[in-house]
């Protein structure tokens, strides 16, 4: 059986088994399977071919999950679209991608998105969670006027069936990564990485639109793992779920640990947790020590990327017990079957043990070629990997990688902005946040900092929008006329 066939078989067995809860509503496997099948039926009836690309504006909600599972189980092509973009940005992505069909929540079918569907001839499927328990209502349905695909042309994908996920920028500028469906076995491997014993209930906080959430979605389905889905991380909702489900392990990003500490969640409320598994950004030794001392929970860190279809480096409980003190600050060791090396940042030559350079990873299930990241690391004599920084200047905001040049580009597009500079400032909760300094053109009405942030929202995702904007008479520059980022940093520190 193929991976998709296995997934389909698992989805359709044990229909009475409770499998997912969302905002207090429990879904059985039978309900999930029926919703997944309904998605495919709508596409088939509308003549959307097997190889035609289908986009989903992804949110952490059950109908989005079942739509994605249905597409994967039936070996259809799926492209995730970030819901945290502005409507205009989503519309532009739809026009460029030429989807035969797009699936989205009713709230995401804004007028710009609807107009893009009309212009492209895209079939439009709406998801309405408010109709789930209303007799005779259809929570998954076509939008009137867009219930048939137009003439196209629509994008068709060659080769094996699979999915496209926008990368977070670990190996360079964010881009869509194509994964044949068979590679999703790595999603299951990633979930099980470094974990011992039976599969525990999961509290999902990772966004479905990224590789972490996709791995969690697919692995939970394949493993029959009961999952509490959080649309967004919320300390109170998360802590209540922990108290109710009593998982021995949870997963998340460093910002989650910081928020839990800041909220002073009672230790007894989350006493079932033995391990906090995390990734997306390095956890500082100080935060790890504070979290462990406060809650008695062991922090098991990991590293992965969209390009790897999951985790490639991780701690395990056994490694933690032996090396906790001596390897504090490490991301862990390579998982079985994964090979790591460090490359010179200029020549690309392989470097010896202990040297600092770009991390390169060999994942046989993905490719026989080494994949270079823009993460700067060292690997010690015991194989432990230590993160030293980013070669592309990316700002790690609560697990999201923000490229400064992308934010600069958005600010420069404002008619009053002459130039801009973006840096990352430390943040206790999120690790770092992007902030921007701008120089305005003369003779044009000056926008306020909030005006500039609103303008940035038109083309950026929420994590990319600068937390603060300073409007300067002129940007400080070096002798080579480049913006002096050190001077910009000092300005923000003085303005704090």
* Structural class by sheet pairing and helices: alpha/beta
- The number of strands is 25
The level-1 CATH class of the largest domain: Alpha Beta
Going across the biggest sheet, name each strand in turn.
12-13-14-15-16-20-19-18-17
Q: Using only CA atoms, what is the Rg? A: 23 Å
Largest sheet: 9 strands, mixed
The total domain count is 3
Describe the structure in your own words.
By secondary structure, the chain is α/β, with parallel strands linked by helices. It has three domains: 3-180, 3-Layer(aba) Sandwich (Rossmann fold), CATH 3.40.50.980; 233-390, Rossmann fold; 395-495, 2-Layer Sandwich (GMP Synthetase, Chain A, domain 3). The chain is 30% helix and 27% strand. The protein has 14 helices and 25 strands. The protein has a nine-stranded mixed sheet with strand order 12-13-14-15-16-20-19-18-17, with helices on both faces. Helix 7 links the parallel strand 10 (202-204) and strand 11. It is globular, with a radius of gyration of 23 Å. It starts with a helix and ends with a helix. The model has no long low-confidence stretch (mean pLDDT 89).
């Amino acid at each position: 059986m193929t991976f998709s066939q296995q997934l389909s078989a698992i989805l359709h067995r044990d229909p009475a088994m409770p499998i997912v809860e969302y905002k207090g509503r429990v879904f059985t496997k039978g309900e999930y399977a029926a919703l997944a099948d309904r998605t495919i039926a709508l596409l088939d009836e509308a003549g959307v071919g097997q190889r035609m690309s289908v986009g989903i504006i992804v949110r952490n909600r059950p109908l989005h999950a079942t739509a994605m599972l249905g597409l994967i189980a039936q070996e259809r092509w799926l492209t995730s679209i970030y819901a945290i973009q502005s409507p205009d940005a989503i519309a532009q992505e739809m026009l460029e991608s030429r989807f035969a069909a797009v699936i989205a929540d009713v709230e995401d079918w804004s007028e710009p998105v609807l107009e893009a569907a009309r212009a492209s001839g895209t079939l439009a499927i709406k998801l309405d969670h408010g109709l789930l328990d209303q007799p005779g209502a259809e929570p998954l349905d076509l939008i009137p006027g867009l219930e048939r695909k137009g003439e196209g042309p629509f994008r068709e994908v060659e080769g094996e069936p699979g999915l496209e996920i926008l990368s977070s920028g670990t190996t360079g500028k964010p881009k869509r990564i194509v994964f044949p469906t068979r590679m999703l076995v790595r999603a299951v491997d990633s979930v099980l990485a470094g974990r011992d014993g039976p599969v525990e209930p999961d509290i999902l906080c990772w966004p479905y639109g990224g590789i972490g959430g996709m791995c969690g979605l697919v692995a939970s389905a394949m493993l029959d793992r009961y999952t509490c889905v959080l649309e967004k991380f919320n300390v109170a909702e998360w802590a209540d779920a922990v108290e109710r489900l009593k998982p021995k392990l949870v997963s998340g990003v460093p910002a989650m640990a910081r928020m839990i500490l800041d909220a002073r969640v009672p230790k007894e409320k989350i006493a079932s947790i033995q391990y906090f598994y995390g990734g997306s950004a390095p956890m500082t030794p100080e935060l790890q020590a504070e979290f462990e001392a406060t809650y008695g929970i062991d922090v098991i860190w990991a590293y992965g990327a969209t390009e790897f279809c999951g985790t490639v480096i991780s701690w395990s409980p056994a490694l933690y017990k032996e090396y906790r003190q001596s390897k504090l600050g490490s991301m862990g060791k390579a998982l079985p079957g994964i090979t790591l090396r460090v490359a010179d940042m200029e020549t690309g030559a392989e470097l010896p043990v202990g040297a600092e350079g770009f991390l390169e990873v060999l994942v046989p299930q993905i490719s026989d070629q080494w994949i270079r990241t823009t993460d700067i690391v060292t690997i010690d004599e015991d194989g432990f990997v230590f993160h030293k920084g980013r070669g592309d200047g990316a700002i790690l905001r609560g697990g999201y990688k923000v490229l400064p040049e992308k934010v600069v580009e958005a600010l420069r597009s404002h008619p009053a902005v002459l130039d801009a500079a973006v840096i990352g400032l430390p943040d206790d909760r999120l690790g770092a946040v992007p902030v921007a300094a701008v120089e305005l053109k003369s003779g044009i009405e000056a926008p306020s900092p909030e005006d500039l942030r609103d303008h940035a929202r038109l083309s950026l995702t929420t994590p990319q929008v600068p937390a603060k904007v300073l409007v300067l008479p002129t940007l400080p520059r070096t002798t080579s006329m480049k913006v002096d980022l050190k001077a910009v940093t000092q300005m923000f520190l003085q303005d704090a």
